[in-house]
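re: ur question from yesterday

yeah so i grabbed the chain u mentioned. its 383 aa long if i counted rite. heres the sequnce exactly as i have it in my notes:
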Amino acid sequence: MSHTDDLSTKPWLVDSSVPVLPSEEEEDLRAAMRDLLGTGGIDEVRRVAATALGHSPAMWSALTGSMSVTTMAVPEPVGLGYGLAQLCTVIEECGRALRPEPVVMSAAIGVRGLLFGRGEELPALLDGALDGSRIVTTTSLTPESDDLTAESDGGRWLVTGRAPAVASAAAADIVLVTAETGTGRMLFAVPTDDHVERMSLDSLDPTRSITALRFDDASAIALTDPDETPRAVATLRDRAVIALAAENVGIAGALVDMTLDHTKTRKQFGRQIASYQAIKHRLADMYVDLERARSAARYAAALHDIDPARAGLAAAVAGAVCGDVVVRASTEAIQLHGGIGFTWEHAAHNYYRRALTNETLFGDTAAHRRRIAQILALLPSAA
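ran it thru and got these C-alpha cells back, copy pasting raw so excuse formatting
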C-alpha cells in the first residue's frame, strides 16, 4: 500500500510531503511585518482599539496596500496566489503585536467567502474587499450563531433575524452569514446598510470588538446553493480555525519573549530569577509548547493550501493545540512576572483576554477535540 493510500484510510498520519519549514521568502515577509508593526506598543493598540472603528485606518491601509494581506491568499489571477500559509505568517505577527485590524476576519475568511459567489452584484463587493476599501467579517456560520431566515423577493434575497455576537463587525461593510431558506440553509453576503442594526457589546477583549447584529429585510447576495453550503461553510470554518491558531502562536511567542526578558532582568537574592532551576523548567516548557503549536498551525495551513478537503483534521488539531498553548503561556507569563503581572495595566492581560475571546469565535479546545474524535470515527458525527 502506498503512502497516499495510507493517508486516505488513516487520516491521522502526517503527510511528510507538506512543507512546514519557513522559506526564505516567508522569513523576509516576517521581518517586513515586524518592521511595520513594531512602531507602536500596547498603549497604541489600546488607543486605536478604543476608537469608533476599533482599529487604525492607517495601519489597515498599510496592511492591504504595501503588504497585500487581502490578496495574498487569493488564487491567481484574482489575487497573488501565495496561499493561506503565507497569510498565516502575517497573522502570526499581527497576533504577536496584538493588532486590532481585521486581518483574520476580512483577509483570511471574508474575502475567501466572497469567492464562492457568482452573482452580477458580487464583483463590486469583491473588488472593494480585495483593495481593502470594504471590510468583510463573518459570523461563526452555524445555526446557533445565525438565527436568520432569507426569502427571495423578485430576484433578490432579503435576510431577517439576528446574529448575537460577531467579531470585527463595528466597521464591517459586508457580513457573511448563513440563513435558512425554503430549500435549505445558504451562505449570503450582506452589505451593512440601514437594514442592519449594530449594537456594540462589552467584550472581555477590548482589542477585538464584538457586535450584535439585527437584520430587517436586509438585501443579500447568495454565495452558495443549499447543496453547496456545507462544503463552503466547512472550508471557511477550517480557514478561521487555522488563522486563529496562527494568531495564538503569535500571542504565545510574544508572551514567551516578554517573560524571558523579565526573568533575565528581575533579581531575587542577588541572582536573576531565570537562573533558578524551577524558573528554567517553566520557561523551557513554554518554549516547547510554542514550537509544538507553531508546527501544528503551519502544517494545517500548508495542507489546506494543497487540499482543503483533507485539512479538517489538521485544522482541528491546530485549534486544540494552539488554544491550549496560548492559555497556558498567558497564565505562566502572568505568574512569572510576579506582582506586576497581576495588574490589569500589564500587557500580559491583554494577550490573555485575546486568547480567551478567540475561543468563543469558531470553537474552543473541547469543541476541536470533539471534532477530532468525530473525524476519526471515535464519536458519532454531529450531522
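noticed a couple things. The chain has a mean pLDDT of 90. also The chain is about 50% helix and 15% strand.
anyway ttyl
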